[in-house]
Amino acid sequence: MNSDINASRFAEISLRKAAIVAGLGLLIMAILAPIANFGVLQKLIVPGDATITASNIMASARLFRIGILCFLIVAILDVIVAWGLYVLLKPVNTSLSLLAAWFRVVYAAIFAVALGNLFTVVQILSEDAYLKAFETNQVYAQVMLSLDAFKNAWDLGLVLFGIHLLVLGYLAFQSGYVPRFLGILVVIAGLGYLTDGFGKFLSPNYSVTISMFTFIGEALLTFWLLWRGYKGFDKELTSKESLIFGYSN
Questions:
Q1: Which of 13, 21, 82, 130 is an S-S bond match for 104, by CB 3.0 to 4.6 Å?
Q2: 234: three-class secondary structure by DSSP
């Protein structure tokens, strides 16, 4: 009897830690990603103007490197969050929870590889070997090509991220311990990423960003994870569910 109680307590603590880790990871990502994207890339990159873009990056090389570092941390945190969410939703369906985690991990891997294009930009604009080997216009054109390659790879990864959110939202909806409305909002967020991703692939003139309006599910999930990690899950789980957690972790 005591062993069962201790196993249940250990499982409950593990579940709380998973929620806290995932919540903190998402919160830090929500801070770093906008800094890197809006505070660095969109501030320095001028679409269609390679000369001004290259000049901006050379004049703010340290800021550009900081942006890359922030993105790299985000990619690492994505893997950690994938683990936390896997542990959290494993009792609902182990296979689907693992599938959701893998989609996020693959997305993080694609994003990390895409960051190599930003490192290439730094090398091209900072090393004399490149600047002397090519004409100025060629150098600037290569910079824009690398920036476009980063963006295209990121867009591709976001399609996988959208699928991750679809599976995640379904698991949350079916869990019984995550609010169902939250699961629905996460699914909607996933649909937003899928719509934007496929829209960009199917139409070169696609300029709508639906995910900017459907991300609310991700934001609420972050705060719910932190709140639930603080409060614990003991009041939400039935004895049967507690046994499931005990045998699953």
A1: 82
A2: coil
Nearest CA-CA partner of 24 in 69, 81, 72: 81
Q: What's the pLDDT at 116?
A: 94
pLDDT band at 208 (very low <50, low <70, confident <90, very high): confident
Q: Say if residue 109's pLDDT is above 70.
A: yes
Residue 75 is which amino acid? Answer: A
- Burial group, residue 170, by CB count within 10 angstroms (0-12, 13-18, 19+): buried
Under a CB-based contact definition with an 8 Å cutoff, are residues 144 and 121 in contact? no
Give the mean pLDDT of 232-240.
52
Return the pLDDT at 3: 43
Alpha-carbon distance 182 to 27, whole Å? 17
Q: What is the C-alpha to C-alpha distance for residues 176 and 192, in angstroms, rounded to an integer?
A: 25
Report the candidate in 164, 69, 179 with the shortest Cα–Cα distance to residue 122.
69
- Which tokens is 81 given? 């969050």
Q: At CA 168, angle to CA 231 and CA 26, rounded to 5?
A: 55
Q: What is the pTM of this model?
A: 0.84
Residue 74 CB-density burial (10 A; 0-12 exposed, 13-18 middle, 19+ buried): buried
Distance CA(173)–CA(206), nearest Å, equals 32
Residue 88: count of CB within 10 angstroms of its CB: 29
